[in-house]
Amino acid sequence: MEEDRDEQQERQAGESQEKGAGIGSVKYRIMVMSGKGGVGKSTVATNLAMALAMLGRDVGLLDADITGPNIPKMLNIEDRMPTATEEGYIDPVEIPIGCDHGIRVMSLAFFLERGAPVIWRGPLKMRAIEQFIEEVRWGDADYLVIDLPPGTSDEPLSIAQLVKPHGALIVTTPQEVAIMDVRRAVKMAKILGVPVLGVIENMSASVCPHCGKPLEMFGSGNGEKMAKEMGVPFLGSIPLEPEIARSGDAGVPFVAGSNSPAARAFEDIAKRVMEALEGRTA
To answer: What are the GO MF terms of this UniProt record (predicted)?
Structure first.
């Protein structure tokens, strides 16, 4: 009986891998994390996924922020639904970018009434995340970008242990209060043995379109300074541009429809991520 059960488990595992279910066939899994909320982590995750797809990669985007699932809104796919397969797996919502690649998206927001709160305890949230990781057909994606909940408590910890990511991106803003929290995120990644691909400073200095002088609404440079102090790469600064927020509200990733400094910064960061991961195994 024990041998029969083992054979059945092996066969089921093989079938799952063959059908592309779970994250085992994804080449590179990336956590996008932050020490605190409000730093634009989901905006960075969405635009990074889009930039990678525009650069010819097949990308999965997992919205693991169960109580604040915003990714479908940012991609204007709120009215679409994942589909269940006859085998009991889930096909994510797909956004074609090129002839043979695009973005596959999974979020709890697809299953919620718009604006409904998620009043769940930790175990129920983790069960949903486990299903997204194990039962969704991510296929042979090049990248899985995972938008984590903010902070360093139970959920980010459990997700990191479950996903076994190839790297972490840490998002911060220039304010010192955000830098204090992001130090904790960097230390958490190091404790878990997750390589820190780099720090991204969001809402950084921009240039006034009228006078050409720098505008530092929240300051600038603290993210790079902190990265150097902690011995991790600094991937770049995203200038504060009002159009980024407007494009997110409209469901059009900023990087896809602009040639501004912020859009170029997102693309440069995507290229650095590709160089770090694809170059590592070359």
So the answer is: 4 iron, 4 sulfur cluster binding; ATP binding; ATP hydrolysis activity; ATP-dependent FeS chaperone activity; metal ion binding
